[in-house]
């Protein structure tokens, strides 16, 4: 019966088995060196498919950077890494004009942001001035320098890591920049079993530098773009569009929140839900997809009221309450 | 030796007596003041001014103890006397004093909290129920709908997708009535699956959920035959619940 209906539903629609298989292969490659961090890896895959940037937050030493590096390795594309420091200048990221005495002209020297996958390590160690340099490129995927627009070649994905803001030498990212990240993933400590497995891996003589070379690209950048087009074709029922809009809207009405989520958050939730649906092997979005992704999409876009912060309430708790209160469309 | 010492004392005393006898002679000398000097005038404060100053309470440096005449004065005296005896006498006085200051501090803290409009109850431990978020949720209560009538109407109008949806809602209602699941509008269909303890009912419900999601969220178009088969599965599932209810 289910198969009958499935056939009926999927007739003349995109086949997601290739995409599903590619994502499974990427996970396998990453798990050669990474133990656990399932949610982080899955959300990174979703973001890659949904054209989103990811902010990974966690305490030092939980393989945030390594996971991001491995994810970048699985896609055969230009990769660059920028270590953000407190004295980093916008020109160190975007590039700068260099004077050539021979020709008496200025030439634009591209910065490390010109790549398909950019890993920004410890993004919150740079001040707001440098963070602001990322606004244009993250949203519009081009850079304007001296009146000239320099587009970036797709795909363009920023994977940024940061330590929790309470830590020494860190700055809070501007709201405008946080909004440009599709997800904020909070990476936690491994479980006991996972930590034992990490120790065992190291004990058996794993050489990180050599083993990193073992991780092979699964997709080319062109293939990734094709998969993204397939994700765009995923069906989202109008009731679910309304459901997404209501969740985002409630963050603006909530008395627990000082700042609600923007329409960009609604778009991110919809696009991410479509990508997650394909990872689950479906050609349509369900409320489960939306509910599963809501915390990662919304947690960095909302600000709690001082009263709620003093009570020790977290953004995730408020998001959970909002999601639980809104009727699931069925 | 002793005789010579006594003679020295005798001469010394005699010399002193002769000197003292000469002083009255010096006193009889004429006055050195000039004769035409003005006489000394004795100045005394104004008697009227003195009375005024004496009457002024600002210059009264003692507390006049007056008898408590009026009722309020007597009441106030008794009250103060009672408080003095409680707080400042004996061993128990110390306890009451501490209690008084504790109440005072608690009152100040309470006023500050009220002014900040903050709830500090979470300081003593993690709050079980977090902040309440006000909502006006438009809920479709499956217990208030005549689902069987609505299904019949949907079938008559050949709205098979809608009929599948209503069948699914009917199944959810039956599961709720039978106590297999706890219905809440915010729960997704799949969140009900682990709530069902009976394995065969759980498996059947999971299949129905897959089917419903393909039809309702996936936009699958249903023909007569496919719908008839789907409806049969819903009816069988409802019968299964009735058997175990």
Give the key terms.
heterodimer; A: 330 residues; alpha/beta; Rossmann fold; Helicase, Ruva Protein, domain 3; 2 domains; five-stranded parallel beta sheet; two-stranded parallel ribbon; 16 helices; B: 245 residues; mainly alpha; 0% strand
Oligomer: heterodimer
Largest interface: A-B, 41 and 47 residues
Q: Give the beta-strand count of chain A.
A: 13
Q: Give the tally of structural domains of chain A.
A: 2
Average pLDDT confidence of chain B is: 78
Kindly name the structural category of chain B. mainly alpha
Roughly how many Å is the radius of gyration of chain B? 55 Å
User: Would you report the number of β strands of chain B?
Assistant: 0
Order of helices and strands of chain B: HHHHHHHHH
Helix content of chain A: 40-55%
Principal-axis shape of chain A equals: globular
Strand content of chain A: 15-25%
Q: Distance between termini of chain B?
A: 143 Å
Within the largest sheet of chain A, what's the order of strands? 3-6-9-1-10
**Radius of gyration of CA atoms of chain A, rounded to a whole number:** 21 Å
Largest sheet of chain A: 5 strands, parallel
Task: Give a structural overview.
The complex is a heterodimer of chains A (330) and B (245). Chain A has 330 residues and is α/β, with parallel strands linked by helices. Helix content of chain A is 48%, strand content 16%. Chain A has helices at residues 2-10, 17-30, 38-49, 64-73, 90-94, 128-132, 134-140, 175-178, 192-203, 208-214, 221-232, 238-253, 263-279, 287-298, 306-311, 315-325; strands spanning 54-57, 75-76, 79-83, 95-100, 105-110, 117-121, 142-145, 148-151, 157-162, 183-186, 219-220, 257-259, 303-304. In chain A, the strands form five sheets. Chain A has a five-stranded parallel beta sheet. Chain A has a two-stranded parallel sheet with strand order 2-11. A two-stranded antiparallel sheet of chain A has the order 4-5. The two termini of chain A are 20 Å apart. In chain A, 43% of the residues are buried. The mean pLDDT of chain A is 86. By secondary structure, chain B is mostly helical. Chain B has helices at 2-27, 47-55, 71-88, 90-116, 147-156, 160-177, 189-192, 199-216, 224-244. Chain B is rod-shaped and about 160 Å long.
């Amino acid at each position: 019966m289910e198969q009958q209906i499935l056939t009926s539903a999927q007739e003349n629609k995109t086949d997601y088995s290739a995409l599903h298989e590619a994502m499974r292969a990427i996970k396998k490659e990453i798990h050669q060196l990474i133990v656990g961090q399932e949610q982080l890896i899955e959300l990174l895959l979703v973001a890659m498919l949904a054209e989103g940037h990811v902010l990974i937050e966690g305490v030092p030493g939980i393989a945030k950077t390594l996971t991001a590096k491995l994810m970048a390795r699985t896609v055969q594309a230009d990769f660059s890494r920028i270590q953000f420091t407190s004295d980093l200048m916008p020109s160190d990221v975007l590039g700068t004009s260099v004077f050539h005495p021979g020709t008496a002209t200025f030439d634009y020297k591209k910065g490390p942001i010109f790549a398909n996958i950019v890993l920004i390590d410890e993004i919150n160690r740079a001040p707001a001035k440098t963070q602001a340099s990322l606004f244009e490129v993250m949203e519009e995927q081009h850079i304007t320098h001296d009146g000239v627009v320099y587009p970036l070649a797709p795909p363009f994905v920023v994977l940024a890591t940061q330590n929790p803001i309470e830590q020494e030498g860190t700055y809070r990212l501007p709201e405008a920049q946080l909004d440009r990240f599709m997800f904020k993933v909070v990476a936690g400590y491994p479980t006991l079993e996972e930590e034992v497995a990490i120790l065992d891996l190291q004990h058996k003589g794993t050489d990180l530098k050599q083993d990193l070379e073992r991780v092979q690209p699964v997709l080319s950048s062109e293939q990734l773009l094709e998969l993204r087009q397939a994700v765009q074709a995923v069906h989202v029922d109008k009731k679910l569009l309304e459901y997404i809009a209501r969740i985002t809207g409630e963050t603006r009405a909530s008395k627990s929140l000082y700042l609600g989520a923007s329409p960009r958050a609604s778009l991110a939730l919809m696009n991410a839900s479509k990508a997650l649906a394909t990872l689950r092997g479906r050609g349509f979005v369900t409320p489960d997809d939306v509910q599963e992704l809501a915390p990662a999409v919304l947690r960095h876009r909302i600000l709690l009221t001082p009263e709620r912060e003093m009570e020790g309430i977290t953004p995730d708790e408020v998001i959970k309450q909002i999601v639980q209160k809104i009727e699931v469309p069925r | 030796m002793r005789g010579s010492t006594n003679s020295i004392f005798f001469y010394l005393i005699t010399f002193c007596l002769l000197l003292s006898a000469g002083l009255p002679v010096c006193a009889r000398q004429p006055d050195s003041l000039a004769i035409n000097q003005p006489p000394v005038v004795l100045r005394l404060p104004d008697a009227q001014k003195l009375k005024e100053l004496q009457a002024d309470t600002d210059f009264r440096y003692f507390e006049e103890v007056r008898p408590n005449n009026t009722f309020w004065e007597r009441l106030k005296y008794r009250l103060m006397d009672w408080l003095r005896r409680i707080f400042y006498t004996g061993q128990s006085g110390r306890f009451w004093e501490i209690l008084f200051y504790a109440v005072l501090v608690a009152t100040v803290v309470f006023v500050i909290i009220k002014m900040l409009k903050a709830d500090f109850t979470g300081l003593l431990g993690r709050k079980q129920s977090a902040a309440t978020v006000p909502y006006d949720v438009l809920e479709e209560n499956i217990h208030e709908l005549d689902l069987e009538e609505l299904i019949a109407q949907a079938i008559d109008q050949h709205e098979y997708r809608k009929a599948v949806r209503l069948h699914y809602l009917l199944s959810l209602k039956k599961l709720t009535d039978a106590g297999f699941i706890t219905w809440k509008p915010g729960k997704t269909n799949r969140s009900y699956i682990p709530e069902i303890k009976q394995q065969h009912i759980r498996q059947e419900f999971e299949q129905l959920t897959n089917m419903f999601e393909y039809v309702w969220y996936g936009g699958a178009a249903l023909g007569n035959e496919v719908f008839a088969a789907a409806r049969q599965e819903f009816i069988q599932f409802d019968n299964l619940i009735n058997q175990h209810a």
